[in-house]
Design goal:
A: 283 residues; 4-stranded antiparallel beta sheet; 9 helices; 35% helix; elongated; B: 239 residues; mainly alpha; globular
């Protein structure tokens, strides 16, 4: 996807010159606040939105399966009817269907009408339908919505398995950043229709540093460090993600006779990275 | 998407459906009332009264079917699973036309059958041409309104509103257009235009199976134009 932009009739810009790549065999996460453009991007990739500026290059005859916004199916029919309907449409074999049903642990309720399903059951069915066309790329918009922890683990594990076994590419979005970090190889952070940064999920060396100062010194310390990108101040605490040696920073502060009352560090997570990118947004 | 399988599934889903048989059954009961009254009272009714009574339910039910065929996948969001490529969108379009033709044929056969029963019981005029005409009228009606609603749905996708709009189009709009025809101040060319407008001619002339050749040509031409427009536009429409 090269410099892809999409605006709606009311003039609002949903995507602004987005550059995006995804390979088969990888899981790409997509995180951002509500209205950032995640769903629009996913709709473009899945072929639902077709009018946009820029370029979308897909592999020859690449098939895309998607679960976007909420699961789609015929609610007055059973889950089995829905699966049979769409599998007939896309020529899925019985074995393929059985594998999906078994892996997503759906067998026990498939004969019930879909309108009686819980949200978690519907999500599973939605994922099953997205997989029925045997896609090369799978697009999942908040697939674990409404699921219990066991269900979330099952779904994310299954998606990982699919990537490994079938070499499919997966784009996944969720507001549960921990889930996205656990499953993804890398994560795009999107805000106001544009990618603000990309997070690689193997950044184990990065640390979140938190420096506590006395009330009088925290402003001075922030004015010394605060010009650097990604530095946050909350009350008497200054925090930032850092992957180098802390000594020079502490020495620099010490030269001005500013000494932190407490220094803490922990491994940086996607959540830390996300809020660093969203600086200015309400946490 | 496998078009043959999709078409088979859609035909099975829409043609072998209880609501369709109920609608045709109810139309037959209403139309059968006239047949019965002719039989019992030697009433002053003719075959066209039989078809008109049959159409009271049949046109509304067929109109609902036309709207439902277009709206249902939009409403349930299943177009997300169907509209993944331009080719699949065109398969969807063609399947809608074929399915509504099949549904319309069912309504047409129902109407023809009732005219035959009237002939059998009351010895009133009947020819196999009437059955053909009946089927043709219903097919024209079904195809036109399906394509009309499909084209509207490309620009406006709020499904419940679309559904209400479709009912109004079939039940109320012809009466409004009829009022225009009665206003003396309206120029003759506008009256001619309205008379041949499928939105007016189909709901008004179908009950008596009296679409003129020119009406049929106009309906067919407009339907073909709507199909061509949908064929061009559907793959370029955002959902």
């Amino acid at each position: 996807m090269k410099r892809l932009s999409k605006s709606f009739k009311k003039g609002e810009l949903a995507l602004s010159k987005v550059d995006f790549t995804m390979q088969r065999g990888e899981v790409v996460g997509l995180v951002g606040p509500n209205g950032a453009g995640k769903t629009t991007l996913m709709k473009v990739l899945s072929g639902i939105i077709v009018k946009y500026d820029g370029e979308l290059i897909m592999g020859d005859q690449a098939k895309v399966g998607s679960l976007i916004e909420k699961p789609k199916f015929f609610p007055n029919r059973s889950g089995l009817y829905n699966i049979n309907y769409f599998s007939a449409l896309y020529g899925a074999s019985n074995k393929q269907m059985d594998d999906i049903i078994e892996s997503l642990k759906m067998a026990s309720y498939l004969k019930k009408k879909v309108k009686h399903y819980s949200l978690g059951m519907k999500q599973r069915l939605g994922i099953a339908l997205a997989l029925i066309s045997n896609p090369d790329y799978l697009i999942l918009d908040e697939p674990t919505n409404g699921m219990d922890p066991d269900g979330i683990r099952n779904i994310l594990g299954y998606v990982r398995e699919l990537v490994k076994e079938r070499n499919i590419g997966v784009l996944i979005s969720s507001h549960i950043l921990e889930d996205v970090e656990n499953i993804s190889d890398r994560v795009y952070v999107i805000k106001d229709g544009a990618f603000v940064n990309q997070y690689s999920c193997d950044r184990e060396h990065e640390q979140v540093i938190s420096l506590a100062f006395s009330e009088g010194e925290v402003h001075k310390a922030f004015s010394m460090l605060g010009n650097e990108e990604g530095i946050n101040k909350q009350q008497n605490l200054i925090s930032f993600i850092y992957d180098g040696d802390m000594k020079p920073i502490l020495q620099h502060l010490g030269q001005q006779e500013i000494y932190p009352t407490d220094v803490k560090s922990k491994s940086a997570t996607l959540e830390d990275f996300y809020f660093e990118q969203m600086k200015g947004e309400a946490k | 998407m496998n078009f043959g399988k999709y078409l088979t599934l859609e035909l099975r889903r829409n043609v072998l459906s209880i609501p369709l048989f109920l609608a045709i059954g109810l139309s037959l009961v209403i139309g059968g009332g006239i047949v019965y009254s002719i039989y019992e009272m030697d009433g002053p009714f003719r075959p066209e009264n039989v078809t008109a009574l049959y159409s009271m339910i049949a046109t509304v039910a067929l109109g609902v079917y036309c709207a439902k065929l277009v709206i249902i996948d939009l409403h349930y969001g299943t177009i997300y699973l169907l509209f993944t490529s331009a080719r699949d969108r065109l398969k969807f379009l063609i399947s809608r036309v074929i399915v509504i033709m099949a549904v319309s044929v069912m309504f047409g056969i129902g109407c023809g059958a009732l005219v035959y029963v009237n002939h059998f019981l009351n010895d009133q005029a009947f020819s196999w041409g009437d059955v053909g005409s009946s089927v043709f009228h219903y097919v024209l009606f079904g195809v036109f309104f399906t394509l009309f609603f499909l084209v509207i749905s490309m620009f406006y996708q709020k499904t419940m509103n679309l559904f209400v709009l479709s009912i109004v189009t079939i039940l109320v709009l012809p009466s409004i257009l009829g009022i225009i025809l009665q206003v003396d101040a309206v120029p003759a060319f506008i009256k001619d235009f309205v008379t041949y407008l499928p939105l007016y001619s189909l709901p008004n002339d179908l009950p008596f199976l009296e679409l003129e050749s020119l009406d049929m040509v106009v309906v067919t031409t407009v339907s073909l134009s709507l199909f061509a427009f949908a064929y061009y536009r559907l793959p370029k429409t955002d959902y």
